[in-house]
Design brief:
The protein is of the alpha+beta class and 347 residues long. Helix content is 18%, strand content 29%. The protein folds into two domains: 3-63 and 163-346, QueA-like (3-Layer(aba) Sandwich); 69-149, QueA-like (Thrombin, subunit H, Beta Barrel), CATH 2.40.10.
């Protein structure tokens, strides 16, 4: 297996710059992973591919306005900071992992101020992936400062969007903490979710706070040498109970998004896929072809960046050749790609 095996050609004009209106008006490419059959639908048709007893599981993490513009205290030069995650054990204001620009000029000991000085970041260290660890000091609760000073952390390939930041949130987003949206969930509307529930399909929620590393292409020739990022997740008691019951009764568990897949597979009891463990923790689970799924039976997802860990994860479920065939079909049919793009259903 090589990283090159997960590459594909994408014309730049197919990178979506704006979300579909309405949300469930995006296109939906249905891939049958058993026979490779492809079907072109619209996302609001999703209920036609579900059946009573299915359980949809979605990530309710909410994106924080994590992009902040400040100045280097000693020079007055502009600095951009992207909040990724608090380090283990950090409180509301404490030690965070971040991305900084321009990175080369921001060595340990550098101070960056934001707003009128109500937020200060002291650079503590950096790692080989370019992530900086900073100590944040604030005159008020961090959430309040970030909400006032921050901007939506849209991916760098979205350069033309200036609409409502809430369109980069799912309608069920609840728990703050992500530096990027769980984009497979952007297609759901409250009305569509009501239709799904009315037909006897359950909907459960877990949380995984997404870091920007999720979207980075794998640089190593051998993907198994890729240093997988870690992300914080939570599985509530109710969700663990519902997922466990679905697996024991032989009902399908359908993950909404690759982040949900990582939660479910991380929280499954080793050797006993019919037992989901409630609780929280950090996951560095890297799923690629050859992985044996314990919980997930089907997947709602978007179209992902070439050579990314996300393409590898979906390939593990769908089969690499079938997935790349589906991607080629999507390109030929003019589907919209990436965060604001169209969706796939792998069943």
């Amino acid at each position: 297996m090589r990283t090159l095996d997960f590459d594909y050609h994408l014309p730049s004009e197919l990178i979506a710059q704006n979300p579909a209106e309405p949300r469930d008006g995006s296109r939906l490419l249905v891939l049958n992973r058993t026979n490779g059959r492809l079907e072109h639908r619209v996302f609001r048709d999703l209920p036609e591919h579900l059946r009573p007893g299915d359980l949809l599981v979605a990530n309710r993490s909410r994106v924080i306005p994590a992009r902040l513009m400040g100045v280097k205290e000693s020079m007055g030069s502009a600095v951009e900071m992207l909040l990724l995650r608090p380090t283990a054990g950090a409180g509301d204001v404490g030690v965070w992992d971040v991305l900084l620009k321009p990175a080369r000029r921001l060595k340990p000991g550098t101070k960056v101020t934001f707003g009128q000085g109500e937020l200060v970041a002291m650079v503590l260290s950096s790692n080989e992936l370019g992530v900086r660890t900073v100590r944040l000091e604030s005159s008020e609760p961090l959430d309040r400062v970030v909400d006032r000073l921050g901007h939506a952390p849209l991916p760098p390939y979205i350069t033309q969007y200036s609409g409502d930041p809430e369109r980069y949130q799912t309608v069920y987003a609840e728990t703050r903490g992500s530096a990027a949206a769980p984009t497979a969930g952007l297609h759901f509307t409250p009305e569509l979710m009501d239709r799904i529930r009315e037909m006897g399909v359950g909907i459960s929620f877990v949380t995984l706070h997404i870091g920007i590393d999720t979207f980075r292409p794998v640089q190593e020739e051998d993907p198994t040498e890729h240093p997988m990022h870690r992300e914080y997740y939570e599985v509530p008691e109710e969700a663990a109970r519902e997922i466990t019951m679905a697996k024991r009764e032989g009902r399908r568990v359908i993950a909404v998004g690759t982040t949900t897949v990582r939660v479910l597979e991380s929280a499954a009891t080793q050797g006993n896929p019919a037992s989901m463990v409630a609780g929280s923790g950090w996951t560095q689970l890297f799923i690629y072809p050859g992985y044996r799924f314990n919980v997930v039976d089907a997947l709602v997802t978007n179209f992902h960046i070439p050579r990314s860990t996300l393409v590898m994860l979906v390939s593990a479920l769908a089969g690499r050749e079938r997935l790349l065939t589906a991607y080629r079909e999507a390109v030929e049919q003019g589907y919209r790609f990436y965060s604001f793009g169209d969706a796939m259903l792998v069943v």
